[in-house]
Input
Amino acid sequence: MTLQSQNAVAGEVTEDSKSGSMWSSRMAFVLAASGSAVGLGNIWKFPYITGENGGGAFVLMYLLCIAIVGIPIMIAEVMIGRRGGKSPLNSMRELVKLDRLSPRWKWLGGMGMLASFLILSFYSVIGGWALSYVGAAASGTFAGASTEAIGAMFGGLLADPKALLMWHSLFMILVIVIVSRGIRSGMEKAINILMPLLFVLLLVMVGYALSTDKFAEGFAFLFNPDLSKLTTEGMLTALGHAFFTLSLGMGVMMAYGSYLPKNVSLVKTAITVSVLDTAVALLAGLAIFPLVFANGLEPGAGPGLIFQTLPLAFSQMPGGVLFGTLFFALLVIAAVTSAISLLEPAVEWLTEHKGISRLTGTLIAGISVWLLGIVTVLSFNVWADVTPLAMFERFEGKTLFDLLDFATANVMMPLSGLFVALFVGWFMSRQAGEEQLALGNGLAYKSFMFVLRFVTPAAVLVVFVNNLM
Output
């Protein structure tokens, strides 16, 4: 009996038995996983939450949280996906059988898949905003525009359900086309183009920021920590963002891990992805804050920093049409690379469970996401006054979009990440863990397991409880 036959009998999924192709190389997986991690959270959210929480001290806490929460959970999720070799739900089902555990654990994969499905339904609407702003910037709409005019433009976009639906639809069509073509012909090929382009555009934006007289001020804001500005709320925000920015708790890394060859180092790969993701967030800060300071704007402008504050900066700067267009193109690329990863878990499960072609599975999953996205589209206008849980003080004024965002970001993702850490740290076969990590049985392995068993769950639990309060 061959080694592969023995593995199949034992319950391990071999590369030959895996439906579909594998990533062609470690670098292909690194780019794909980095593309998933690098999204609107890095270029839209990271700069404004850094601005709201005092700059450098927040960044320092964020880097620490990446190390103790982000990297361990990423390794654990990819490990589950690679060992199971299937979609998140079916990978957990395989590991439960292999390690003779409670079948209830399989729903851990299902929770992540559901989270990614729900997140993409509103993520695609925000991606549509970025698409619309590329055209607006390229046509010179921002040039010379006042604060009121730019604010009215954004408000008008949100108030127009037809326009939002059109941009949401275009974004989802782009994502569906890429995912339907498969791992190597679609997702890997797109990532190999989009990720280098993203870095080039980001470096161009940083280069432009470097030419302003406020680059030193922006650099100091990011990298000169004033610990007196770090509040408890800021520390919890850093912990939460470190967890969410790496696409954890969504089933994405399990799905991507299922296509990862067995000879690739999990630890080195997860660290590389985390470093690239963090580098993009920091470069985005270096590109944005000098422009904000140069135009006398407020760094803690909140969620409107990208769609209202920055267009004002582009309206006033030399070359604003060109650099505004490049910036929003960068934002679209980041959104697309994340969106294709959010659709993949559902597509992988449909092709396995229903035995249908990848094209059919992608169309079913993509159209379902698009339909659910209409709820978010209408939440900004026609259904803006629909607040189904208003009877609870915690949810007063929360629209259907707000509730979807809350349920995924504050409940499903933290719980999924927590249980992933507990599953790999306490329940999964130790022998399998040692083989997957390839760290030996020495200090490195014991240190990783200590962090995964105790430090990471405690940190995620703190974020989870705080988010519910």
About this structure: DSSP finds 19 helices and no strands in the chain. Residues 1-17 have pLDDT under 50 and may be disordered.
